[in-house]
Amino acid sequence: MNSTSSGPDTRKPSHLFYQSRLRRPLVARAEGIYLWDQSGKRYIDGTSGPMCVNIGYGNPRVNEAIKRQLDQTSFAYRLHFENEAAEELARELTAQMPGDLDRAFFVSGGSEAVESCIKFARQYALATGQDQRRKVISRFPSYHGGTLGALAVTGYEPLTAPFAPMMESMPKIPAPTTYLDRDNLSPEQRGLKYADLLADAIEREGPESVLAFLMEPVGGASTGALVAPDSYYGRVAEICKQYGVLLIYDEVMSGAGRTGRYLAADHWGITPDIVALSKGLGAGYAPLGAMIARTPHVEAVLDAGGFMHGYTYAGNPLACAAGRAVLHELLDHNLMENATLRGEQIQAGLRRLAERFPFIGDVRGKGLLVAFELVSDRATMAVLPKELNAYQRCVDLAHEKGLIIYSRRTRGGIEGDHLLVCPPLIVTAAEVEEILSIIADTLATFAQESGL
Ligand code: PLP
């Protein structure tokens, strides 16, 4: 039927297309952390879709809120009417933000949120007489979205290379992949070393030309939940301040509670200048994203003639009503605390599995944004032979065994296999054990097949 179940595919040819010809099972229903296909097979969603279904599937409160909004009005254009759902979500969402990050601009997804951050930063520079500032430094590896502006700041060659002639690629510095470093530095020193690469890049590019620095505080799929040493975050913020460079946190994946705090920035007490959010904000119930900006910056842009940017569905009432109910669920059920506890349980379980499977390399992450690498040698972190296709094989084996996990054969530009384990924030301790047991089974089959 597809790459992960047996039997011929008897379905009609599809008029839909995505990345490849591969056909996936038709989904029949979903509830909690589970999905069922049309044959009745049950899957645990060990990756919350693409790390977005933060409160699980079929939440009655969110469904009810969407229906209520639908009965009232599904749409009202933001240039003609204000709507209460967007107003209230902006109020409640910015209450979760540190400092004066008090203003929200709603969009429909992560790429739009990142585009909005970049365009807002540029308009702030223009509004304050800093016309030369136009370069956005970002990191390598990284992923910031699929639109051309977001791709220009994405550090992931397979996705950017085909479009390189069509966009101005922005300067990149290495993300702190410190687990690959073989120096004698302490974690703190390593963090500072990587942060100082930002100061070097600003000097190299010409400080007057640098508009912003964009980073994922906890990496997503491109790096496999990369967390920097603590010292990195404060030093980066200091460097940005010193050079008058805006600090943009892409929290599309790490935000909305996934790492155990509403923003991953909260772990390090950082107040970025601009934040991109999406994924867990609508949590799979509605396409929703947001740019959150600081009041003085917003006022400067509005004073200078307005924010020249917008989308038809910006501040959509249905999406905002869903987002509001998602936020209430997250807060009322202490799901961020659960993310911390269950994330620790997953990391501890993976470390136990590493005693049994020597090809498990680094285990890392924060809250329920967790990843582990598959390597041929843990001491050197050397990668597995490409022919093993380890990441895809493990995903397929897990799928057969009823667990959905996420993977990449990449550390950005560097080859390597990693798997992400990021279930919804409602996952229970018993469900985590079930996930770990299927991962153990998957790795045992993979080891046997591959002679590892
Ligand atoms: N930024 C980050 C960190 C992401 O992980 C993603 C998606 O995976 C995006 C931006 C783009 O979001 P979307 O796919 O909703 O456009």
Kindly list the characteristics that best describe this protein:
about 450 residues, alpha/beta, Aspartate Aminotransferase, domain 2, Aspartate Aminotransferase, domain 1, 2 domains, 7-stranded mixed beta sheet, 5-stranded antiparallel beta sheet, about 35% helix, about 20% strand, globular, binds pyridoxal-5'-phosphate, PyrdxlP-dep_Trfase, Aminotrans_3_PPA_site, Adenosylmethionine-8-amino-7-oxononanoate aminotransferase, transaminase activity, pyridoxal phosphate
Description:
- The chain is α/β, with parallel strands linked by helices.
- The chain folds into two domains: 60-332, Type I PLP-dependent aspartate aminotransferase-like (Major domain) (Aspartate Aminotransferase, domain 2, 3-Layer(aba) Sandwich); 334-450, Aspartate Aminotransferase, domain 1.
- 37% of the residues lie in helices and 18% in strands.
- The chain is built from 13 helices and 16 strands.
- The strands form three sheets. The protein has a seven-stranded mixed sheet with strand order 4-10-9-8-7-5-6, sandwiched between helices.
- α3 (84-94) packs parallel to α10.
- The two termini are 29 Å apart.
- The mean pLDDT is 94.
- The site of pyridoxal-5'-phosphate has 15 residues, from α4.
